[in-house]
Design goal:
Elements (H helix, E strand, L loop, with lengths): L14 H9 L7 H14 L2 H9 L2 H9 L8 H18 L8 H20 L9 H16 L10 H11 L3 H11 L29 H23 L3 H12 L6 H8 L3 H43 L1 H6 L1
Amino acid sequence: MPTIAALPSLSSRDGLSRYLTEIRKFPLLEASEEVACAKSWRDHGDRQAAYRLVTSHLRLAAKIAMSYRHYGLPIADIVSEANLGLMQAVKRFEPERGFRLATYAMWWIKASVQEYILRSWSLVRMGTTPAQKKLFFKLRQLKTRIAAADEGDLRPEHVNYISKQLKVSPPDVIEMNRRLRGDHSLNVAIGDAEATEEWQDRLIDPTPDPESRLSEIDDYHRRKVALKEALNTLSARQRAIVEARLLADEPKTLDELAREHRVSRERIRQIEGRAVELIRRAVQARIADTQARSTSRLKAQRSLQAKFPSYARSR
């Protein structure tokens, strides 16, 4: 497994722009290449294969890291933590499950960055419970949604809205908002105290435009529905194993499930692999069908608009 030292580094001298340019030079892997590298690393300890897996996903790690840039911490440190999470994902990746590394790595990267941020804020005892962690990372997003991002103390109606959305108490919302207000100014100089350039000057805004965001939400909804339908096609035992292994907050090990179901560890692996393959096929079929119907509706609408221009204007 490559170390952080073996990867491109983000320093105050080089800057974020140069780092992003450098990591874009690493080629992305095709699905077949990804599987081959993952198996070579897992079965033979091939460090070069692991290096290819890591470097081909550095852009993903950087994108996720930049989404956490508003917490008053050096972006270089956040990127390093994201890369550590990526390496953990590569270390544990099992291509037989049928999912791409990017999907699996996303959660490891986010977890690594979030834990780093919480550790860095631990001097004020923040984020010690699951509810506080959720509030810590979601408060700014909800404030932006209700146009309260620039407020000092939140208005009562905003406090109530946030507390209901996140299922936390109003006093917790008020307290967290006051603690995070010190994070509002992030003009941290690059280099020594006399430097005129700041970290925020080099950051690229990863926020998608509204149209892209709506497309992402729609795609997420389709996949969620497809996954739910796919789970319903499994046997009771297949579903129980998949949920325990892949969907639980604290996944169970093969040994634990083998004891529960009174079969061998290898048998659990086989059932899981078969179930994942069934899910993958069902999800792909559902999405393909949805996309085909959407395309058909769009063609019909365009045909109608061409025949009846007044209809198009009324739309």
